[in-house]
Amino acid sequence: MDLQLTGTTALITGAASGIGRATARALAAEGVRVALLDRDAVALAETARGCGDAVVRVVDVTDETQVALAVSTSVEELGGVDAVVCCAGISGPVGSTIEQISLHDWNAVFAVNVTGAFLVLAQVLPALRASPSASVVLLASDSAFVSSPGMAPYCASKAALVQLGRSLSVDLAGTDVRVNTVAPSIVDTPMSRGDLGEHAFVSPAFEVQTPEDVASHVLYLVSPRSRAINGTTILSDFGYSARSGFPA
Fold it and tell me: Known catalytic residues?
């Protein structure tokens, strides 16, 4: 299928590794000129080597001043922007109950996962409105819908991101800007391996996606081919959340 992306532009946060890197390279392979945003300069440079004539900005998405500068200069260098993919995210404390979690750690998760997306989108929306077919994709998680013990900050932040996407799609109704989210289950990324341990991926007792699997969902949502899809979430969890817990 021709995704009709050749000659378009996209801005990706969290582009230094994992899903962000896979998405950036997949978009570039489709003929999209990309702007790559992340706070890890070394890893970001590695991503850029697989993305053609990429724009690179080292930025902390929780810092409003940095975000404003990075977005404005990226849009200027790209000559406009047709898509934004917000992949920047952290897991925060894993394995802790809420009485064990500090306010600082709780706020840090929301600052990156939710406020970071808010800051980027607030800056980039004027440019998106100027595009004839614009798309925003927020990277959430199946943890927005189901939960594992000791992951309250992460789960709550991803649920907030899903609702942020739905709310934005309503606010932007009647424009040419669509907003959707992708909510994958466990993905083999450095963050997941850090949380679960390398051993969990040796002979996993659960289905595991690759970053490239998730990137393929993002590409479809970015593409004009998905023009009727707006305000929704692609839950890619191998059908896990559809199963009943009834013992039969």
Answer: 154
